[in-house]
Amino acid sequence: MIRFRCFALAFILIIPYCNSFSQNTRLRYVGMESGMKFIESEISDMDLIRGDIPSYTLGFSTSSLTSLSWAWYAGVKSEIFSLNDRFGLQGGIRFSQYNSTVGKDEYWGSTINYFYWLYRQEGTETEFLKIREIIQKTDYLGIPLEIRFLLPKRPHTLLLYVKLGAEINFRVNTSTNVVFKDPLMEIYEKDISDQVEKPGAVSFAMYSGAGFRIGTDQKPSVSIEACFPYFILTSHSSGLLHPLFGGGFQLNFQVPIKCKAK
Q1: 3-state secondary structure at position 95
Q2: Is-contact 177 135, C-beta < 8 A?
Q3: CA–CA gap between residue 89 and residue 24 (Å, rounded)
Q4: Is the distance from CB of 153 to CB of 82 less than 8 angstroms?
Q5: Which residues 6+ apart lie within 8 Å of 73 measured at CB?
C-alpha cells in the first residue's frame, strides 16, 4: 500500500507536465521497443505441495524448491516532446510474456530432483505425484505510459535521460507445463495444470529507469536503458509465483516524423 501511494503521488506531480503537453506539443518520433525483465519472486502458497519428504529421501523439504521469474516484451510506441525539448511523453502497445518456474534442485550428487504434489485425496486414500518442474507462461497485451527527462536537452547527439513509467496489462493466455520424474505420468499433466492457479486477468506495474539516446535530431535514433526498480502492484493474483520486485533493460529504435507544433 505504501509503494502504491508513493508512485501515485509521483504521477500526480507529473500531471501538470502532461497538461502542458496537451497544449503545446509536437509529435516527433515513432518506433519499436524490446526488452527483458528479471523478477524476484516467492513461491505462492500452495497446499498441494507436500511440506515434508520422508527420511529415506535424506530429509529434504520444500525449502529445497527453487523458483525463477522473468519476462520478455516487444511493442510499438510514439513520443511527443515539450517545446522546450526536455520532456518526452511516450505511449503505445506492448506484448509481454512472463515465464515462471518452480522445481527441485539436486544436492551433493543426490538423485532427489523432484517434489511431491497432492493429486487426489478421497477419504483415507491419498495420492501424490513426483514432479521435477512446473513451468507457467502467461501472455499479456499492455499499454505503457512513460515520461522521460533529457539531460541535456536536444539536439545533442548523445543524450542521457531518466524516466518514470507505468503499464497496465491484460492477460490473453496462460499455459502450464509439468515435468514429471517418471515420463509415464505425463497423462496427468492436464489435471495438474488445472490445479495450478492462473494470474489475474489484469495487472498493473510502475517503474523507473535511466539510459542514453544516440542519434541526431532529425535522424533515426537508438536508446538503451536500464529499468529499476520494477514493481507489480497487483501481485495478489499472481499465479505460480508471487512477484516482489525486479529490473531489466530495454532497447528502443525511433524514427522522426514531421509535425508542426500546436
Answers
A1: strand
A2: yes
A3: 12
A4: no
A5: 33, 34, 35, 36, 37, 94, 95, 96, 97, 142
Cβ 149 vs Cβ 13: under 8 Å: no
Residue 26 CB burial class (10 angstroms; 0-12, 13-18, ≥19):
middle
Residue indicated by cell numbers 544436492: 107
Contact between 202 and 169 under an 8 Å Cβ cutoff? The reply is yes
| pTM of the predicted structure, to 2 decimals | 0.82
C-alpha distance across the termini of the chain, in Å: 39
In the 8-state DSSP scheme, what is residue 61?
Answer: B
Q: For the chain of 262 residues, list the mean pLDDT of each consecutive stretch of 10.
A: 48 47 65 96 78 38 72 95 84 96 67 83 87 94 95 78 96 95 93 92 95 86 95 79 91 82 49
Locate 92 and state its grid cell. 503505445
Q: Where are the beta strands (DSSP E) in 105-155?
A: 115-122, 125-151
Task: For the chain, state the CA radius of gyration.
Answer: 23
Q: Which residue has the cell 515513432?
A: 30
Answer whether 39's CB lies under 8 Å from 82's CB: no
3-state secondary structure of 198: coil
Contact 104, 114 (CB under 8 A): yes
Angle, CA of 31, 99 and 243, to the nearest 5°: 95
Taking the C-alpha atoms of residue 1 and residue 261, their distance in angstroms, rounded to an integer, is: 40
Residue type, 115: F
